[in-house]
Amino acid sequence: MTDQYADQYADQHTDQYADTILTGGRVKTSSGWAEALTVRGGIIEVVGGREAALRRCGPGTRVIDLDGATVLPGLHDVHVHPIYAGIRERRCKVPQGSTLADTLRIVAEHASRAAPGAWVLGGQWDTFALGAVPDRTMLDAVVPDRPVLLEDTSGHSSWANSAALRLAGIGPGTPDPPGGVFERDAAGNPSGIQRETAADLLALSAPKPADEEVEAALEWSLGEMLSYGITSFTEAAVGFTAGPRAELRAYTGLAARGAVKQRVRLCLVWSPVDPLCEEVIANRNRYASRRVAPDCVKIFLDGVPTDSHTAAMIEPYENTVAGRDDEARRHGLLAIAPAVLDRAVTRFDRMGITVKFHAAGDAAVRAALGAVEAAREANGPGPCMHNVGHCTFVAKADIARAARIGATFEVSPYLWQPSPICSDIAAAVGPAAIERVWPVREMLEGRTLVVPGSDWCVVPSVNPWSAIETLVTRQRPGGGAESFGPSQAITLDQAFDLFTVNSARQEGMAHRVGRIEPGMLADVVVVDRNPFEVPITQVHATGVKMTFVEGELVFDADADSGRGAAERPS
């Protein structure tokens, strides 16, 4: 709204004063920058000059002096695991990138404080940082008398000691489950490393968190996301940590007492071999509330393109894994047969349920697109924007295909920068493939809708500002000599759009959120710098001062530190 029209609006609506006015800073709009905005009933009213905004000030209006700060649309995270992240904070926490010696020391210290016989549960580890291939004997040396189970950085592999294997009944005669692998030593004994569904099978023997712990973990994570300006998110796999019923109880319980401030899309996990999935999906609407929409299904198609070699790849991996059959050694694992997948996606599409796929390897991406195309052919065009998640590697031909059939791409985790896990990926697939790792630039040039996801806690922080910077630089936050897939770098404007207008389209909310304009919901954040004016290598350090959802102040950095918001009552 230009100042001229803002003045007219303010003059014509003085009988209804604003609830909140933000002024004294810079406000990013779709067409440029403004000085102020007003909010009434959760809706943005006036966006324009300071004088026009202050004419909407009445006896009960809260006027917030921005003191030069910047106002931006609220950010979206379209792939996150908040319960998983919150639970990990409460377990044996191994910092990402830890060496073998540090990892074993942390595990031993945690075990020494645990109750007698209690499991040591936690993570994270990756082979590149450890500097050695892990096995059960390493954990046995420091914790021989109680079960230990550690997840890797990706959450797709686990590392167990002998006590954990014994309790789970896993031994030399245990077969690999469909879609998973028990790594084995030269004698055929389980090594203590489990991949994909084998890791899930072992985890069934470990204690599940209590409902109170699940709810506390979720509440902590919700607050953490608000502190970074995340006003909408997609829970990418309900049930991944504590089972679907416990996790749905946590969401509905917190929503009932008004503790879920963000807009949330829940993805309910579907598997062709688990009948509970169908029951949860059939009853999905009973978990809906004003801010929580359980209208998405998650389908895991492969693993990860690390030393595990479980992502499904078109071209073979650089090396092989002993004890795997030829296809699994060379091309990874496709978890669901294409014919089964096509039928499932067609059914969900007919039901009006959006499907999010886990597809890290390019062969898995191709299978996901094949299923979407089958659904389009069977059902015709529809409203569901089926979303292919992760997309670490995507064949060039499949980018054009996605645009043609109306599928969308989600790039995650925030790993398009040098890191130990990326070194692991590079060793697995080779330098040629890394030239096109997370091909965001090609996706945008191919006119596909691209959205971002943290996959937190695969990354150590849910910080979206770090992701925005590194999408532009393809370097570590703050810059550096090394880069990771630099040919796929994009502009800052493009990166910011991924987190705002693009994500709003994916969530079916583009008419309500993602932009600062009159008539839009007042989901906005106040930050301590203008990321469009500082050097790009400083964007990662952007600090959120306030976060608003529908005009409600849901995070205030000053209040949290005991200083109070910069606000004066009228």
From TrEMBL:
It holds the Pfam family Amidohydro_3. It comes from the Bacteria. One of its GO terms (molecular function) is hydrolase activity, acting on carbon-nitrogen (but not peptide) bonds. Residues 62-555 form the Amidohydrolase domain. Gene3D superfamilies: 3.10.310.70, Metal-dependent hydrolases, Urease, subunit C, domain 1. CDD domains: YtcJ_like. InterPro entries: Amidohydro_3, Metal-dep_hydrolase_composite, Metal_Hydrolase, YtcJ-like. This is Exoenzymes regulatory protein AepA.
